[in-house]
Design a protein that fits this description.
The chain has 11 helices and 21 strands. Helix 2 crosses helix 10 (about 370-380). The longest helix has 15 residues, at about 385-400. It is an alpha/beta fold.
Length: about 425
Amino acid sequence: MLYPLSYRRAAGTLGPAGRPPSRRRFDGADAPTLPGRGAVALRARGVIGLRGAGAGSSGVGPARPSVRIPTRFSRRTLIHRGASRESAGDPSGAPAVRRPRAGAEGQDGRQAPGTAAWGETDVARDVVVVGSVNADLIVQVERHPHPGETLLGHTSSVLPGGKGANQAVAAARLGAEVALVAAVGDDVNAGIALAGLRDAGVDLDHVTAVDAPTGLAVVTLADDAENTIVVVPGANASVSPRLVDAAADLIAGARVCVVQAEIPLATVAHVARVAAAGGTRLLLNVAPAAELPTETVRAADPLVVNEHEAAILLGRRDREPADAAAELAALGVRSVVVTLGAGGVVGIEDGEAWSLPARRVDALDTTGAGDAFVGALAAGIADGLPVRQAAALATRVAAASVTRLGAQPSYPWQGDDLP
């Protein structure tokens, strides 16, 4: 049985939204861009497949002055953690204020995330994410166990996660108006999984509760900051083309639609078609491992892959990253972003190649760093930045995220300093 998940129901049965993480300055230095996991493979019969998985890497380097997240999205009042932040507004100095509908305010006076139905506000969403929502069970260990070996862990915690939810939170914390199309179970983990989304102000009207457990990711985090992750999809398997069709107007009204491969692949392909029909730009992050039709990949603008995914996609590993990006673009993809870990980022847009250096920090936890990159990239593109400039912001956001434990709790807010 499928039924809409309203904030009131969620608050009553799934628990209140979690408290926001404490704010602090990121005093880092250069940090790598850490892409999502997975690898893309070009196959015959018009199908692009994905094989393998690779963890992000982190680097350490000399300290650089931190930079503050640009105050963008100046068309509205931004509401974060109970305090509204007036944006710069238009040149006349009068910002357009998004006002919540009557009765939608929480006890602290702010709008309760997930209560503003589509069409009931004057502001369309900058970003719509179609993707997964998980609870992340994080176990910290000294090192990863060998096959058949049992180790004692340091600590364990359960935090909100899922590639779709992570990317939505990353974009929303930077000030973008974000909506999520997803599914969760009717269980305790749903409250945990949705807490970060509510806190960031993500529109949850198209999040549906289903008769299945909420998605779960079991993350083993070693002292060297490398992790292994096993994902049990659960309710994410219920994110169907029918749910996407129900959100077609929402997607058509957005500047950018983001999708990944932690939901059924038929749905990923359908999202690409719905976005194209609505004239909405598609950001396709093909991770984790999956198979997608060639036309789905060609619809991406941008396609985001890491260097290993790019090599497998092209069927050869002897290409320099910039050449790999150019060859991917030659397949018919308008813009491509290839992340290189400690090597930085290279890309191409409308035939123009570019590159960015890595940012380095002392990494604590790389979980969700690739999603931080994608969410920030989507937010920048939605605000009108060229892909290169949006990637420059995304690189810093991903760098900041690896300095804290967890995925969503590690993502910086608009106005925070970045490496």
